[in-house]
Automatic annotation (TrEMBL):
It comes from Peptoniphilus olsenii. This is citrate lyase holo-[acyl-carrier protein] synthase. Keywords: Nucleotidyltransferase, Transferase. Pfam families: CitX. Its EC number is 2.7.7.61.
Amino acid sequence: MKNYKKIEQINKLLEAKEKRFIYQQELIKKYKNTLISFMLNIPGEVKSSSKTREFQKYYVNEIKTILKQNNIEILYEDFRYKDTGDEYFAIVNGDAVVVKNLMINLEESKKECRLLDIDIFDKSINQISRQKLGFDSRKCLVCDEEAKFCMRKGTHTIEEIIEQANNLLEVNYEKKN
């Protein structure tokens, strides 16, 4: 029964990813501009809660502030509440490489920003990667190794990763109150 539930959850996540990709393509084709696609890296079964939503909305406001400071206009935005993880989309009139560099700076600004998953696509629907711009891969939530390395090696238990993610969510919450 446990395996069935796990398979069902994986299928939901894959379906959500596919729908998100289709929506991203539609937005770029319609607006012919740079797309910001922002979710949180939340381990475990519960991807959306009042705590994650508050955290994500805080960082949506941070993104908007950064864009405004750099004279990048938001042409369209959409926030979608999903069990598989809330999604924020923004079409902006800035160069995709510039926007990606700004978002990488945000992702690396604080420890809790390891939870941020900000993807940038150019007007040709090409995703701008950290590696293309000469940045290191994302770090693990628990340690300072590359996240991909820890995932492949099974360095941490899911319970450790979930606990660390919850701790990072609390850090931000405490700062705001």
